[in-house]
Structures are given as C-alpha cells and as structure tokens.
Amino acid sequence: MDSNYRYKDARLKPKIAKAIILEQFAGKTMSRREIDAAVIQHHESNGGLPSTAKTNPIKAALRYLKDKNFAENVSSGSGSTWRIFENPKPVSEPLGTQRLIEMIKAEIQYLTTLMKSFEHRVAELEAILTKENQ
C-alpha cells in the first residue's frame, strides 16, 4: 500500500480511473477486462474505495480519454481492446478539408486576378486624365 496515494479513502470515479489509466498503461494495448481489473486492484490496494456509481467509472474514463485522443478502441464488443497513448494521438484531417483549402486557394487566385485588372484599369484612366490635362 502506498501511504502517499492521493486517492486514499476516495470512491473510484472517472477522474481517478482516468489518472490511473494514464499513469499505469500509457504506451500499452490491453483488453478492457485487464484495464478494469488493474485499475480496481491498484486503487483499492492503495487505500481507495470501490465505486458506488451506477455507471462504470472506468468505462467513462476510457470514453473521455478516447474523446481527447489519449486512447483508441482497437476492437469492440465484450472483449474490447484499448490502446492508451502517452500523448494525444494526432487528429486526422476531416473529410472535406482538402476541398475547402482548394476552394479558398481558387478564390484567392480569382481575387488576385481581379485586383490586377482593376490596377490596370486605374493606370489606363490615369494615363487618359494625364493626357487630357496636358
């Protein structure tokens, strides 16, 4: 038992489960059952209290970590397997982003062409006005 365990006498909640998962399993791939058992064992053997929540705090913690790109469910079902990352996994580019970038570039090119045309027209008008004033 770790006498300095910061969650001693605290009920297992998603926040605590999340911290244990990141501390104990970063860089590992494990089954959900292994994660559940290890988190509960670690928490309770260090003086933590079991959860009394209706929803599984470890499941909630994994969902949170997945949403924040610290975890990935590499298989589903009752025997699901999770990969836990030390740092958030880079987010891939959403579909359509490349198309949006292409549209923005095309708009910039179109506006640049218009500006050059306006600049040319202004130069023509200045030449006409200068010629008429002489």
Task: Tell me what you see in this structure.
By secondary structure, this protein is mostly helical. It has two domains: 14-84, Winged helix-like DNA-binding domain superfamily/Winged helix DNA-binding domain (Arc Repressor Mutant, subunit A, Orthogonal Bundle); 92-134. It is built from four helices and three strands; from the N terminus they run αβααββα. A three-stranded antiparallel β-sheet has the order 1-3-2. β2 (71-75) and β3 (81-84) form a beta hairpin. α1 (14-25) packs across α2 (32-45) and α1 (14-25) packs across α3. The longest helix is centred in the C-terminal third of the chain and has 36 residues, at 97-132. The N and C termini lie far apart (99 Å).
What are the SSEs and their pairings?
Elements lengths: L13 H12 L3 E3 H14 L11 H11 L3 E5 L5 E4 L12 H36 L2
Antiparallel strand pairs: 1-3, 2-3
Whole-number total of structural domains: 2
Strand line-up of the largest beta sheet: 1-3-2
Structure annotation, total helices:
4
Gross morphology: rod-shaped
Major β-sheet annotation:
3 strands, antiparallel
Return Rg in Å.
Answer: 30 Å
What is the CATH-assigned architecture of the largest domain? Answer: Orthogonal Bundle
- SSE-based structural type: mainly alpha
